[in-house]
Amino acid sequence: MIRKSDQVRIETVQCLSPDGLHKMAYKEWGQPDNPHVLVCVHGLTRVSDDFDVLARELSEQYRVICPDVVGRGRSSWLKNPQNYQVPQYVADMVTLLARLRATHVDYLGTSMGGLIGMGLASLRDNPIKKLILNDIGPSLDVAALNRISQYVSQPLRFATFGEGAQYIRSISLTFGEHSEEEWHKLCKDVLRQDKDGMWIRHHDLNLGLAMQAITPELAQAAQVMMWSAFDSISCPTLLLRGADSDLLSKETAQQMTRRGPKVKLVEFEKVGHAPTLVHADQIEPIRQFLSS
Q1: Which single residue of 30, 42, 225, 226 could bond 138 by disulfide (Cβ 3.0 to 4.6 Å)?
Q2: pTM over cut 0.85
Q3: Per-residue pLDDT tens for 39-61?
Q4: Cα 29 → chain centroid
Q5: Which domain range does residue 21 map to?
Q6: Domain of 268: which CATH number?
Q7: Do the domain assignments include residue 163?
Q8: Is residue 53 in a domain?
Q9: Is residue 60, in this structure, part of any structural domain at all?
């Protein structure tokens, strides 16, 4: 029997960028009139479907909202790729929250989604009650960023789903151990067929252009801004970290426990960047934090 909270709906909201309007799609789990709202936002080249397991687990208690950030999944692509930046994403989230008519929300962000969450939670009169950051912080390892940027914009096409899945799995080994069924879904969520029947990745390849334009000076300035934003956060905050993460160092994570919202830190062994939050041992700390 399918519970009402298990039913998922795909909706869209219209957002504004400097170059015009675009559509942001989102998945909605649970009862639409539930005042307890949890927003879950994915990483750089991932999609809303990443949170299917978590959303299903929490949809009895929450109305769970999982957007496809613009340029990914079911959402539109931006006309100007230089607008693929955190300020644009934060603005889109504000528009989404207005659509939801939620006075307060809890927010979970993986990697890029966490940067968006930090930006939003640092704003005056923001609606976030509790914040969960998944393997992300104000200081990011430059070598790890370079590793990620190398594959974001590669125009790869695969003749079969199997070939595409093999590639996605090869660049996602830092996710840690998963069953074959879990790997299949992690790959299927970010692959689609084009008009020629070839398998391609489910994001705008121009996402990498903004990253490639970042100079060391801009990176340093961005880090200063992100620490300032982090120090402005006042809501209870949980930090999840893969113990082997190359993006979020242990030193930065420890610093986050002493600054700003003084996060509660939970680490997962044998996992790098980033925990996928599909296993019970990764979901339970989230459940406990939200219900505390």
Answers
A1: 226
A2: yes
A3: 999 999 999 999 999 999 999 99
A4: 17
A5: 4-140+218-291
A6: 3.40.50.1820
A7: no
A8: yes
A9: yes
